[in-house]
C-alpha cells in the first residue's frame, strides 16, 4: 500500500516536508543509518536530520521512517526520495517491530536503533535484507490505553462523597456566620 506522500510524488507534485524535529516521538529518535560510499560507512544520517522523513500512520503506534542516502555536505546532490532505507515501525507494548520495506538505489547502509545494529549493509544491487523484520525492546513504556470509567465501581464511594460534601458545606456555613 502506498502512502499519501508516495502517491503525491508519483503524480509529480511536491512532497510533504519532513516532520519537524520537535514533533518526532522519543521512541523514533534512536533510528539512524550509516550510509556507505564505496564500501565505507561514510555519512551518518539520524532521524532528527533533514535526511530523514517520518510519517505517522497510527498515532503513537505505527510509523514509516524514511532516509535519504545522498549527503549535501559531501557534495552529493540528494534526490530527496527518502527510500534508502524505508522502514515500517509498529509499537507493541515495550517492543518495536521494524521491517525494512524498501531500499531504492544501488548503495547500501547499516541501519541502527540506538546502538543496536538492525541490518548490516542493507540494500545494494540485491536488495539485501529488504522484507526482513527485526524486534527491539524500547525501554519506554507505551502510553496506557486506560480502562473505561466504571460507574458501578465509583458508586461504592458515593457515601463518602456525600458525607464529605455535607461536611464541607457545614464548614462553609459556619465560617460565614463568624
Summarize the structure.
18% of the residues lie in helices and 34% in strands.
Question: Any overview of this molecule?
Answer:
This protein folds into two domains: 4-137, no CATH class; 147-178. The chain is elongated, with a radius of gyration of 25 Å. The longest helix has 20 residues, at 158-177. The model is unreliable at 1-5, 7-16 and 141-150 (pLDDT under 50). It has helices at residues 4-10, 151-155, 158-177; strands at residues 31-37, 40-46, 52-58, 62-67, 86-92, 95-102, 108-113, 116-123, 133-137. It has three helices and nine strands. Strands 3-4-5-6-9 form a five-stranded antiparallel sheet, with no helix packed on it. The chain has a four-stranded antiparallel sheet with strand order 2-1-7-8, with no helix packed on it. 18% of the residues lie in helices and 34% in strands. By secondary structure, it is of the alpha+beta class.
Q: What are the key terms here?
A:
about 180 residues, 2 domains, about 35% strand, about 20% helix, alpha+beta, elongated, 5-stranded antiparallel beta sheet, disordered N terminus, single chain, 4-stranded antiparallel beta sheet, 3 helices
Protein topology:
Layout: H1 4-10, E1 31-37, E2 40-46, E3 52-58, E4 62-67, E5 86-92, E6 95-102, E7 108-113, E8 116-123, E9 133-137, H2 151-155, H3 158-177
Antiparallel strand pairs: 1-2, 1-7, 3-4, 4-5, 5-6, 6-9, 7-8
Amino acid at each position: 500500500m502506498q502512502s499519501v506522500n508516495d502517491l503525491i510524488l508519483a503524480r509529480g507534485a511536491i512532497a510533504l516536508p519532513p516532520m519537524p524535529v520537535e514533533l518526532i516521538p522519543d521512541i523514533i529518535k534512536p533510528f539512524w543509518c550509516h550510509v556507505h560510499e564505496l564500501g565505507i560507512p561514510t555519512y551518518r544520517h539520524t532521524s532528527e536530520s533533514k535526511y530523514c522523513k517520518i510519517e505517522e500512520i497510527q498515532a503513537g503506534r505505527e510509523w514509516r521512517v524514511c532516509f535519504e542516502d545522498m549527503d549535501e555536505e559531501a557534495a552529493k546532490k540528494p534526490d530527496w526520495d527518502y527510500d534508502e532505507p524505508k522502514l515500517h515501525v509498529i509499537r507493541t507494548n515495550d517492543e518495536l517491530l521494524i521491517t525494512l520495506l524498501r531500499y531504492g538505489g544501488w548503495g547500501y547502509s547499516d541501519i541502527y536503533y540506538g546502538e543496536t545494529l538492525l541490518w548490516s549493509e542493507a540494500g545494494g544491487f540485491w536488495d539485501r535484507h529488504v522484507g526482513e523484520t527485526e524486534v527491539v525492546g524500547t525501554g519506554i513504556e507505551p502510553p496506557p490505553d486506560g480502562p473505561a470509567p466504571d460507574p458501578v465501581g465509583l458508586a461504592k464511594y458515593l457515601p463518602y462523597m456525600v458525607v464529605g460534601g455535607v461536611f464541607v458545606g457545614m464548614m462553609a456555613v459556619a465560617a460565614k456566620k463568624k
